[in-house]
Write a structure and sequence with these properties.
about 650 residues, alpha/beta, Substrate Binding Domain Of Dnak, Chain:A, Domain 2, 6-stranded parallel sheet, 26 helices, globular
């Protein structure tokens, strides 16, 4: 099959050399990709700023931007939907519906993990077992589960049932809210945004945004915060905690990244999506001697497994499996002509991969009952017999190896990275075995070697140059002594740019940050996992407050967040729960409420008075980085640590006085 792709100015589409080569190859092969579609399909100018309402059958209603600050009553009346909804109501409804979509995605992921966790604890899911006993017991203490002389599986059953109950809870508060600093909990209670149950807050968004229900943008946005907190401190945190117990808490591991990890003489299987439940089994199945021998019988020298998007981050952190690329590279990986199977589950899967695969020999295999694609082969994941599903998938890929054509081009680009910096690992690296602590990080922020901390996360977006925003923002931050923690596609972009090895500190980081990285032996950019693992960043921030010296709340910390190339609703939910947790957060590309100056002003300014954190929008990644640095400096000044302090060695008299 030949697409309608045309030779494009590939260098303007990506900063990654491997991606540029594959964009050019796709053009030669007549394959249409997201890069081509982004060039030819322009966004709706009303929809992109959040002023288009299609929530009922009378619409869509397109409300134009105000012509000036001073509108006449007649002009204001013209800027309403048929039902009378104002631009503010429409923008707020659209915004929190994005929060609901993102929170649903991550929280449904968490629900699936909890269901598998409970099945494994009951012995109903063969192949799965508890791999991190210490974290199991710690979580039991956190949730008030009796330990005593009980077995790990008995404890795990109670934990699984408690976690599953959090989704349908109707009253009270989510249990993991207790992990936040007390002052933060007081803010949530004061503002009325402490989530009662994960599902309840998402459903309430859908109800409030139905025609004729909540029409006050302040009230609507409050519910958006409530649902987003239910994602970050609920569904996402449940997913991360239970995955760590089942599959092992990540520790530093060396891996490779980029399309060059594909092998010309091996069966290439790419696992793409977000849930590690099946991918863990595929990793095991691909290593079985019988499967390797089957691959050799088909003419291959072995089986090469690699990841794409957040599933890639999961299997990298726990098994060292190489990463083939991030979101905008999924079509490009198939374009190499060397991929036997792309195995997908949920989230961020382009429907176009089936069309691209028709131009080559690649088989697209869907595995989730809630994530099917027309034209793909479906091999459903059965958690009660997961290894059988995994073997069927691996065998399908092996059987496809002889169907390779001669149109194969694998870029040579691949980069080393160190990943696996979970909250627990950072705690250990900074404090040691017996006194694990964030205190050394706090001390180096106080003494000024480290300016502050930034969480830079999020997707790729075909409307901007692939990876440029991610890499340039992170480079600017670490150059200014801001240590960066990252997840998702940003983490993959930083790895491809060589920012995730300890040697990067000397090359890219400021003198103070570089000295700390050298002393601890870590990169200046720390890979904390997949996008659902942004809950690890919340835990790290809470730990910084707990260890003292930097205020009483997350909003007091010299920290900031960003998603320079965001595109998914999940990113909006993530940003909203960081803002609701007290973090200044900058987004790039575009902003979905610009159609309402009132709503935008509320998010960008009034939110800080309410939650201690607020949103900002800046499409230029360098300018966005300096907005974050300016905020970090403001927090340092408020803490009284903005000036260098002379180190004083106390003598005995001074100690007695102290």
């Amino acid at each position: 099959m030949k697409g309608e792709g045309k030779m494009a100015e590939a260098k303007s589409k990506s900063i990654d050399a491997a991606s540029i080569k594959m964009i050019e190859k796709a053009a030669r092969d007549g394959v249409n990709t997201a890069f081509d579609r982004a060039e030819t399909m322009k966004p709706c100018p009303i929809g992109v700023v959040g002023s288009c309402c299609k929530h009922c059958g009378m619409g869509p209603c397109r409300v134009p931007l105000p012509k000036g600050k001073e509108e006449t009553p007649e002009e204001k009346l013209k800027r309403r939907g048929i039902c009378g909804a104002t631009a503010e109501t429409i923008a707020a409804r659209n915004f929190i519906r994005m929060v609901a979509g993102g929170a649903s995605a991550h929280s449904d992921h968490g629900r699936g993990v909890a269901e598998l966790f409970l099945a494994a604890a009951k012995g109903e899911a063969s192949g799965y077992e508890i791999k991190d006993e210490q974290k199991l017991l710690q979580l039991a203490l956190d949730l008030g589960v009796e330990i005593g002389e009980r077995s790990n599986n008995e404890i795990a059953v109670d934990i699984g049932e408690i976690c599953l109950a959090e989704f349908g809870k109707q009253a009270g508060e989510l249990l993991f809210l207790r992990r936040a600093p007390l002052k933060r909990q007081e803010v949530w209670q004061r503002e009325g945004v402490a989530p009662r149950g994960i599902d309840r807050e998402i459903v309430e968004i859908m109800h409030r945004t139905h025609i004729g229900v909540d029409q006050d943008y302040r009230s609507l946005l409050r519910q958006g915060v409530r649902a987003a907190i239910g994602d970050g401190w609920g569904g996402s945190m449940i997913a991360t905690e239970l995955q760590d117990i089942l599959f092992g808490t990540p520790t530093p591991v060396l891996g490779k990244v980029n399309l060059g990890v594909l092998e010309k003489d091996q069966v290439n299987i790419i696992i793409h999506g977000h849930e590690p439940l099946l991918s863990e089994m595929i990793v095991a199945a691909a290593q079985e001697p019988e499967m390797v021998e089957l691959a050799k019988s088909k003419g291959a020298s072995g089986i090469n497994l690699s990841g794409m998007c957040c599933t890639a981050n999961e299997i990298l952190m726990r098994h060292g499996v190489a990463i083939a690329g991030n979101f905008l590279q999924q079509e490009l990986a198939i374009t190499t002509g060397a991929v036997e199977a792309m195995v997908v589950d949920i989230q961020c899967i382009m429907q176009s991969i089936v069309t691209v695969a028709e131009c080559y020999h690649t088989k697209i295999i869907t595995t989730a009952p809630k994530g099917r694609i027309p034209g793909a082969r479906h091999i459903e994941f059965d958690e009660h017999n997961a290894m059988a599903s995994a073997r069927a998938i691996v065998k399908t890929a092996i059987d496809n190896f002889p169907n390779r054509g001669s149109n194969i081009e694998i870029p040579e680009e691949q980069t080393y990275q160190v990943a696996g910096f979970s909250h627990e690992t950072i705690n250990y690296l900074l404090g040691g075995v017996y006194r694990a602590s964030y205190r050394p990080l706090n001390d180096n922020i106080i003494n000024g070697r480290i300016r502050g901390l930034a969480g830079v996360v999020g997707c790729n977006n075909a409307r901007v140059q692939h990876n440029y925003g991610h890499v340039e923002m992170v480079k600017e931050l670490i150059k200014n002594d801001v240590v960066v923690v990252t997840t998702g596609c940003n983490a993959i972009a930083c790895a491809m740019a060589g920012l995730m090895v300890p040697e990067a500190a000397a090359q890219y980081a400021g003198e103070g940050l570089a000295s700390v990285c050298e002393a601890v032996g870590i990169p200046p950019v720390l890979h904390m996992g997949s996008c659902v693992d942004n809950s690890r960043i919340l835990m790290a921030a809470a730990a910084m407050v707990k260890d003292g010296g930097l205020g009483d709340d997350i909003s007091d910390l010299p920290v900031a967040g960003a998603a320079p190339e965001w595109m998914s609703e999940k990113a909006i939910s993530i940003g909203q729960y960081f803002v609701g947790s007290g973090v200044f957060t900058v987004f790039g590309v575009n902003w979905p409420t610009l159609g309402s100056p009132e709503v935008t002003e509320f998010l960008f300014k009034e939110f800080e008075n309410m939650y201690g954190g607020m949103w900002a929008f800046e499409p230029d990644p360098i300018k966005g980085a300096h907005m974050m640095i300016e905020h970090i400096d403001k927090k340092r000044k408020a803490l009284g640590i903005d000036k260098a302090r002379e180190r004083v060695l106390f003598d005995m008299a001074m100690r007695r006085e102290l």
